[in-house]
Amino acid sequence: MSKPAAAKKPVVAEPEDITVANTDVLTKYKTAADITSRIIAQVAAASVDGASILELCVNGDKAIEEAAQAVYKKDKKISKGIGFPTCISVNNVICHFSPLTSDGESPKLKNGDMVKIELGAQIDGYGSIAATTIVVGASKENPIKGKQADVLMAAYQSAEAAVRLIRSGNVNNVVTDHVQRIAAAYGCKPVEGMLSHQQERNVIDGSKQIILNPNENQRADFSKCNFGENEVYCVDIMISSGDGKIKSSSSRTTIYKKTSGNYKLKMQTSRAVVSEISKKFGQFPFNLRKMDDEKKARMGLIEATKHRVVDAYEVQEEKDGEYVAQFLFTVCVMPNGPVRITSTPIDLELIQTEKKIEDEEINKLLASEIRPKKKKASKEGEEKKDA
């Protein structure tokens, strides 16, 4: 009598690797980063005397969308588009300024304005975001001086230190400490409580964080963590020429992001608005101008933000007369060191500060390679030597 056939074991699918250890994932991050870097350079070049902030934001978003749609054309299921809406924040305005047509006449840039440009792209849920700071009209004949030069160089050098410190095994508060020391060397302060986040697929505000200039309560509540191999971080360095204290702006909030919250909203309008947000933007930030009906969206967002189904990115400011500089980059923590995948335009020759960093430890860090150079292959029969 023959034996019954053995039952086949069910095939268990391997979980998808959504870290940058997966070359496909890394390529998507880098593709988004290339778009971000290209568009931010275009927006910076267009940020001239008389330029409309509204037009710069609209054109930046349009350029991101067009560039994103031009890649990965064969896979129709891949989401592609804006990873962070274009924001143009001037002088003491810290972040998130991206006006609407309905706001009336848009403010215009003028020579001498310190302009922070922030934007990002995403491919298949992998976002790459960047920000840079320029001064309108600056040139070799008209260099950046005084408080503007101090705060700009403090932010730039802080970003350069941060990227060297975000490597596997390092602790997040090491970045906090170094940025504080660099800002102090230039007579500046990091913006209080500013957060940088780990990124994952469809998540730009992951659980691991870096904080700048925490107050006593923030320091007590903040969790230490180690950076891990194959993690991705969006590192946001913001430095103020003032005391770094944040205050809410009178400008209306225009940027929002759906959270993972699942509170059952009561109003039909609110549910319809959140449904539209989910379909169009997923869990990436968006500008209200991208909604079908701006007035209806504002109504629905009242309940949605109250119950944290949607987060609001408020416009924030420093005191009048102060300047805030920002450098933001996306970095991958690879086994052989950090890889900054976004690039932002800056001309250091235009910055003339009389201050400098005297701290030997920090100067040594800034002079070091971001990633150690690979050892050269030795010739046959010879000993290997350090490159």
UniProtKB/TrEMBL annotation:
Lineage summary: Eukaryota, Fungi, Fungi incertae sedis, Mucoromycota, Mortierellomycotina
Family statement drawn from the similarity comment of this UniProt entry: Belongs to the peptidase M24 family.
Peptidase M24 domain ranges (all copies): 28-213
The name this protein goes by in its record: Proliferation-associated protein 2G4
Pfam families recorded: Peptidase_M24
CDD domains on file: PA2G4-like
Gene name per UniProt: PA2G4_2
